[in-house]
Design goal:
By secondary structure, the protein is α+β, with helices and mostly antiparallel strands. 39% of the residues lie in helices and 10% in strands.
């Protein structure tokens, strides 16, 4: 008997979507997820709207969080760190090519495909935003240890902060690489406010106990990312060409090319016509409209988030 496919599901209560801000956030998240197709980014499978909840159905990644692997082994060797970081960097390069800023890059949002695998995928686009030269991002979001200084300018709700863009993700990548190579955060303090003060000043050290055996090249990459002024921070093209990463990036691109070739072969096979003698009638796949959801005033908008899903949008009791 064929094993049934398993998926990860994010559940959103429809009553929470009566708040316009929450509804807009859900629309943005799903709109972004629909744009994505990359070997190192989690795939959206379907959006299903029920009477009381909306379900975002994603591919299941069963290998656990990068955070847990760091806790288990303390830190990565430089070779393993470069191979891992190249995967993360290539996923970010793809996002930025679509003008998408993740805004919450951290080990908890990087999952391994399966137990024992070294392949990772970036998840959780709840804070992601669409960037444009004439419409930069605003607002405070992310995680204290990983948030960029320019994002912190929005910490005081009474003041207008500084608009920001893709560079905020690059700062987070610098923090992430520091954690992967040392097993600890560059900005460590007991109180959140103290952490944010360290972040705002880019005040950190390469402590001898963790960094004595790490190459200067790896440290150089981190130093060029953890720069307070976004305009002076290393850019994505510069990262991809950095000596510490260049070979791992080339290997990562090769692996992606192989996956894309296999995907094209599978797609071609799926599109191959089945001989008439072996065809069987199938049920109409179009979803049927069920009972109204519990909040009729937002029904068109809630249903709208699923209309372009791989299997459409359905309302079920």
């Amino acid at each position: 008997m064929k094993e049934q496919a398993k998926y990860a599901v994010k559940v959103v209560e429809n009553k929470s979507l009566a708040d316009e801000e929450n509804l807009e956030a859900l629309e943005t998240e799903i709109d972004i997820l629909r744009k994505l197709d990359h070997p190192h980014i989690v795939a959206l499978k379907e959006v299903v709207v029920c009477t009381s909840d909306t379900y975002i159905v994603m591919e299941l990644l069963s290998g656990g969080e990068l955070f847990n692997r760091i806790v288990e082994q303390g830190r990565f060797s430089e070779h393993d760190a470069a191979e891992l970081f190249a995967q993360i960097l290539l996923s970010m390069e793809y996002l930025h090519s679509l003008n998408i800023v993740h805004r919450d890059v951290k080990p908890e949002n990087i999952l391994y495909v399966s137990q024992g695998s070294t392949q990772i995928k970036l998840i959780d686009f709840g804070y992601a935003g669409l960037w444009a030269p004439d419409k930069e991002l605003s607002g405070l979001c992310g995680t204290p240890d990983y948030v960029a200084p320019e994002v912190l300018s929005w910490y005081d709700e009474d003041d207008n902060g500084t608009p920001y863009g893709k560079g905020s993700d690059l700062w987070s990548l610098g923090v992430l690489l520091y954690v992967i190579l040392s097993g600890c955060s560059p900005f460590s303090a007991e109180e959140e406010e103290a952490i944010l003060q360290l972040v705002a000043q880019a005040k950190y050290e390469f402590h001898e106990s963790e960094w004595a055996t790490v190459s200067e090249s790896a440290k150089d990459l981190i130093k060029k990312l953890l720069v307070v002024a976004p305009a002076q921070r290393m850019t994505m093209p510069e990262m991809l060409e950095h000596p510490w990463l260049k070979e791992a990036v080339a290997n990562g691109r090769g692996a992606i090319d192989e996956k894309l070739k296999l995907k094209e072969v599978a797609k071609a096979a799926a599109e191959t016509p089945v001989p008439p003698s072996s065809t069987k009638p199938v049920a109409d796949p179009s979803p049927t409209k069920g009972p109204a959801i519990d909040h009729p005033e937002i029904q068109p908008r809630v249903e709208g988030v699923g209309k372009k899903g791989l299997a459409g949008c359905c309302t079920i009791s």
